[in-house]
Amino acid sequence: QVQLTESGGGLVQDGGSLRLSCAASGRSLLHNAMGWFRQAPGKEREVVASISSGSRRKYYGDLVKGRFTISRDNAKITAYLEMTMLKPEETAVYSCAAGSLMSRSSSAWKYWGQGTQVTVSS
User: What is the pLDDT of residues 62-119, one digit of tens each?
Assistant: First the structure.
């Protein structure tokens, strides 16, 4: 059974940093891409970043390029999202996903975590 569990969310001030983790159960995920999405109240879910199974390819949404870094440790089957220079408008539930394709569309991802709240105060 595949399970994704996020951690690391919380409250941070404008300009602050957070590191999210996504621990995966199920060694089959070693061959899956992993990604981070976020959804703010009243808004659609949007892709933040994704990474291929071997970490050779990485994708970043336009709004986070240069500030966020995605990585993974396949020995631990864990993905990370390092977020810096956070802005209040980035307050959202951040969710981890795994799937066979690095798609910008959330519907293409097969497995999802429950999400972790990130709140950026002004």
Answer: 999 999 999 999 999 999 999 999 999 999 999 999 999 999 999 999 999 999 999 9
Q: Torsion angle, CA of 63/56/73/115, rounded to 10 degrees?
A: 30
Q: Using CB atoms within 10 A of its CB, is residue 111 exposed (0-12), middle (13-18) or buried (19+)?
A: middle
The DSSP result for 61-88, as a single string, is -TTTTTTEEEEEETTTTEEEEEE-S--G
Chain CA centroid to CA 44, Å: 15
Spell out the residues 6+ positions from residue 74 whose beta carbon is closer than 8 angstroms to its own.
30, 53, 54, 55
CA trace torsion 91, 93, 98, 102 (10° rounding):
-30
Joined together, the tokens standing for residue 51 give 């990474």
